[in-house]
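Format notes (please read before filing issues)

Several people have asked whether sequences and structure tokens are stored in separate files. They are not. Every record keeps both together, in the order shown below: the sequence lines, then the token lines. Line labels are part of the format and must not be stripped during preprocessing.
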Amino acid sequence: MTAIPRRALVTGASGAIGAAISRRLARSGYRLYLHANQGAERAQALAREINADDGNGEAAIGDPRAQVLRFDVTDTAAVQGILEQALEAGPIQVLINNAGIHDDAVFPGMSPRQWQRVIDVNLNGFYNVTHPLLLPMIRTRWGRIINISSVAALTGNRGQVNYTATKGALNAATRSLALELASRGITVNAVAPGIIASEMSDAHFDAATIARLVPMQRAGSAEEVASLVDFLAGDAAAYITGQVISINGGMI
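Then the structure lines:
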């Protein structure tokens, strides 16, 4: 009898890291919900790409391997309603909390809106997405929750007091939630990337800066982050929980 594929939700799937994670999980056989808000068109294109390939280089037929969920992670009621509909098809046992924003300014010049918006997306969004999925996941006595953090939460970063506050809080929440869920067969970990090649990082870090900051003297790739996430999402990582795992080329 063929095992029923596990179902996974990747938030922020339209970004570079989210898309790489989604592709990697698809290759590992998961059925995917790809979340996006502003980047819904990119997420739809990614779903079409994944659904065009059955994992063996052939066209997929029938049950789609990926579908898009569009919502604003800060809208508690909207998130709950959409996820409840998704849960009608069965529990979502793998959750990748990747959605996040930054809005940088030195703290004396940071507006209340900059502070609140980053808190709302990065931290309240974690609650809004994770909470509705927990009881169905607990009932299966198997699950993986992987929160995408940042090296900045571990080192600090000028101009990012709001962003680092959210990622530091996410690390702490990871450890506490891991304790609550460990006896239920559910692991909770955070992955803290360093400088990862993308349009956004390319605009902030030139080669000389990367060589100075990163002992490996290069930016990481989204695919390298995705490989780590894929491992943590699998059965082989069953004894790893409550950890903040850095992937940063030796920065710390």
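For reference, the curators noted about this record: Confidence is low (pLDDT under 50) at residues 57-61. The beta strands are 7-10, 31-36, 66-70, 94-97, 143-148, 186-193, 244-247.
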